[in-house]
Structure formats: C-alpha cells, structure tokens
Specification:
Blueprint: E1 3-8, H1 16-28, E2 33-37, E3 51-53, H2 56-62, H3 79-84, H4 88-93, E4 96-103, H5 105-120, E5 126-131, H6 149-170, E6 173-178, H7 185-194, E7 198-200, H8 212-228, E8 234-239, H9 242-245, H10 248-254, H11 273-287, E9 294-299, H12 310-328, E10 334-338, E11 344-348, H13 349-352, H14 370-378, H15 388-391, H16 403-406
Parallel strand pairs: 1-2, 1-4, 4-5, 5-10, 6-8, 6-9, 7-8
Antiparallel strand pairs: 2-3, 10-11
Helix pairs in contact: 1-2, 1-12, 6-7, 8-11
C-alpha cells in the first residue's frame, strides 16, 4: 500500500501536531498510509526505526495539542551514515512516495540530501518541507511568520507581563532572556507587547561591533533614565542571539564555556543567559556604585510546547493541507508557503539558500522599520543628551550610557 513518511527535526514549536494531523487527514483520504518517524532523521539510519502509524482518530486527537507526537531530534547524518547505514528498505517496503519534513533550515537541507540519495539509488521520492521555528527567522516572503512564533510570543507575553508586575510590586529590576538563535524577533515581539523599557537584540548593533560592555551599558542606560523619572523598577529583555554575534574574545570575557550541537551551533539551552546577563550587569553596577537590585528570568523552554493559538491552528492546518496540494502538482525539493490570503505555493530551497554555503540565511529584524523605530523612540527609556545633567546625580559620565551613542546610531 502506498504511503508517505513524516518526521520532525530540531526543537519544538507550537503547531507541529497540527501540521502532522492536517497532512495525515488529507493523504488518508487519498488512500495513503501515513508513517510517522520518531527521532527525526536518525530513524532513517537504523534497521529498526520507531514508526508511529497515524490514522484519522489519532490525527483528530492531536491536531490542537502542543508538543509533537513524533519525537524530535537534531540528528544530522554524515556522508558515512548515508554510505553505510541508510535504510533504503524502509522506503521500498512501504512504497513511500513522499517524505514530509517539519523543521528549520537544517532539517530542510538534510531533506534535500535524502531525496538526492534516493534518486541516485533509483528510488526517487518527492520531499516537501514545512518550515517552523519560534525564532521567526526563516526568510519567508512578504514578512510571513514561521509557524509557532505567534503562539510562543503570546505565551512569552503572559510570563513577561507577570514579571513586569513583580518588578513594579517589589521595586526590583528583572533581566529577561528570550530565545532567538540568530535574530531578535521573539525578544522584540515579547518586549514590545509588554512595554518593556529596554530590549537588546543583535540587530541593534548594525553600526558598531557588539561587545559585552555595550550590552550591559544599554541596560544600565535604562536603569538610569527610570531613576531620573522616579521609577525604581523595570525589566530589560535581551535576546540570546547576542551571544552569536560576540567574538571569541568577548565570550571568553563572560566566562561562558559553550558546548556545540551537531550543526555547529552553541548549545545556548545548556546555560542560563539571564543569569549571565544579570551577573555582568551587577558587576558593572558595583563598579559605578549604582544601587539597583536585579534578578534573572529565562524565557525559553516554557513556550515551545504550548497549545497553539487560533492563528497557528489555522496557519498550520493550511500548510499541512498545502503539502497535499503541492504533491498533487508534482512539486518536490521545496518548502510549503502559505500567504496572508491562504494561497499555497512552493518555495524552493535553491532560491533562498546562500549559493556559496548552501545555508539559508536568517531573516533579521529590520531595525529601520517604522515598527521598530516607534518602539525605540516612544516606549523605551534610556539616556539622551537632554538628561545628561540629571543623570550626573547618579553617575559621573552619563554620556557613556547614551543609548544612541553606544550603538553609533
């Protein structure tokens, strides 16, 4: 009996089960078996893969739940894995006609390798990728979000609104770190929704080298301004992605020793970025003799497996059904793209990959956009020349904490 195979790679994002359920329902109606593979790509490189067959009842049960019924993995096969361990029999025995992958750019790139390997061994199959990441950093057209981002932002906003209320109630400061490996979309989205008086994202450093001292000085700039305003509390949001832009020398200064995953990315999830930021800020506060109490808060794993909100339920359903549409049109080697009107079209990886490296370049926050500049100018609090004299009541050199001078804006 003809079948399709589905696997999930990378880290969780709200809506993964919605995609799996929607893909399954459309293909089950066409008489296909739907074989879900546990443990990502590692399932294809073992003689005994863990397979979850998806039927109508299971698809109906999971479509609105967070997490992923198909267990995930960041496994990235090597050339040796393809040569010695690829389970071609799984595809032949089950008459697999389509491999559906759900993940980020690394998962998409590996899907192409699998399809090429099968074609070279005279068993061509279609492969269609469904792009996901709560980081919102895949370059989809027309600023379309990646699925899971809006749910993660909503869940993060609930947490961070409570954090800000705690700051106000206890007259403390909180340093909050949000996920975002290569871009600051999630940190900025949550901070903007919560009216945080300071956010620091890697894209802010578009005109100057990013350093730990500059990151810390931006936070203290906000603390100083709010003291002048008579506000003894606050919260600063810092994107974990700033670490990816730091030089090795700067990382060494912070005292952090990263391990790296199979894709060469620092395993930021193994360290508390908020704790590190908090310690660095406290060190600077002590040096300049500024009395501020601050506490760290990490926002990350709590928001990845939330039940998807209505936006992502609809969006992921359309993408799941879009896989069937593209397959019926003979598309392969592409990502499914759904525009704001619900129209489905293929987005070919070759059109968004860097021609030299083959990598998909992350979509950065456009700091020059009206959306970002309005937040920076109208909501955030920081030192400007207009308050230098008032700031001298707290520090001798307020110009060192001038937000726009630090960033060379």
């Amino acid at each position: 009996m003809k079948s399709i195979a589905i696997l999930t790679g990378g880290g969780p994002a709200p809506g993964m089960n919605t995609v799996v359920a929607s893909v399954s329902k459309t293909f089950l109606r066409d008489g296909y078996r739907v074989l879900g593979l546990h443990s990502g790509y590692s399932a294809l490189f073992t003689t005994e893969p863990r397979v979850q067959e998806v039927d109508f009842a299971l698809a109906d049960e999971i479509f609105n739940k967070g997490g992923s019924i198909l267990r995930m993995s960041r496994f990235k096969p090597t050339d040796e894995d393809f040569e010695k361990r690829f389970n071609l029999d799984f595809f032949i025995k089950n008459e697999v006609k389509l491999l559906v992958t759900v993940g980020g750019d690394d998962t998409a790139s590996t899907a192409n390798r699998v399809a090429k390997f099968l074609a070279d061994h005279h068993y061509p199959i279609a492969n269609i990728h469904v792009p996901k990441t709560i980081d919102n950093d895949l370059p989809l057209p027309n600023s379309s979000p990646t699925f899971g981002y809006n749910t993660a932002k909503t869940a993060g906003t609930v947490i961070c609104t409570s954090v800000m209320e705690d700051a106000r109630t206890s007259e403390n400061w909180f340093l909050v770190s949000a996920m975002g490996r290569s871009a600051g979309h999630l940190a900025l989205g949550i901070a903007g929704a919560c009216h945080y008086p300071m956010v620091v994202i890697p894209e802010f450093f578009n005109k100057t080298e990013i350093t730990i001292d500059k990151i810390v000085s931006l936070v203290i700039s906000c603390m100083l301004k709010r003291k002048i305003m008579g506000l003894r509390y606050g919260a600063a949001m810092i994107s974990e992605g700033v670490f990816h832009s730091l030089s090795n020398e700067e990382i060494a200064k912070s005292g952090i020793h990263f391990t790296y995953d199979e894709h060469g990315h620092p395993e930021l999830g193994k360290v508390s970025k908020a704790h590190i930021f908090n310690e660095l800020v406290e060190r600077k506060l002590k040096d300049i003799n500024l009395k501020v109490k601050c506490r760290p808060v990490e926002v990350g794993y709590e928001i990845r497996c939330q039940n998807p909100i209505a936006f992502d339920l609809t969006y992921c359903s359309l993408m799941g059904m879009g896989v069937h549409t593209l397959f019926a049109q003979g598309c392969t080697g592409c990502m499914v793209y759904v525009d704001h009107q619900g129209n489905v079209s293929p987005l070919y990886l070759k059109d968004i990959q860097d021609p030299a490296t083959g990598k998909i370049l992350p979509r950065q926050v456009n700091v020059n956009s009206n959306k970002v500049q309005s937040y920076v100018n109208d909501i955030m609090d920081y030192i400007t020349p207009a308050v230098y004299e008032a700031a001298r009541a707290y520090v001798d050199n307020p110009e060192l904490f001038d937000f726009k001078k630090i960033l060379n804006w």
